[in-house]
Amino acid sequence: MAEAAAAVTASGDTELGGRILKVNHAGEHGAVHIYAGQIAMARFFAPRMLSELAHFKADEERHRALFWAELQRRGRPRCRSYWLCGIGGYVLGLVTGLFGERAIAATTVAVERVVLRHLVHQLHSLAASDPAASTAISTIVEEEQQHHDASADHLASDRFWSRLLSPVVSASTETVIWLGMRL
Fold this sequence. Notes:
The chain is an all-alpha fold and 183 residues long. It has helices at residues 2-6, 15-45, 50-74, 82-97, 101-126, 131-153, 160-182.
């Protein structure tokens, strides 16, 4: 990765920053589709969450557009994992949505916990070397934290869904990020 970080364009963009933005863009596409799947199921199994899920989905759509605009500015294509993230996200959203409010919330908490950890690491890695990538990433952190915290509030008395879904969803999210950085 040291070689990638060393490759800097005249505008201050780094190869590492470009790769991270591609993966983040694909991840936001996956998040949009997680919420789309959950919304489809929440109509039947968690109707009280529809407004919150629609709000989260709108945030993720805005994040995806932000990363896409930065990728276009750099002349970079989408990540090869883009469509995989969308399909996988939708399936995850449908399946967890079938089990209702707490499963939906546990999924969001698990995904956002991993995402926030990666975002913080990305900010540390890019702050000095790629200010444009760092700015794009820092723009979304607060909303991702809000998604995590609001979902965690739904889990105050839950033990089952958090224990069942957290390791599976966290490992899946880590794997998708790992693959995206290598595709």
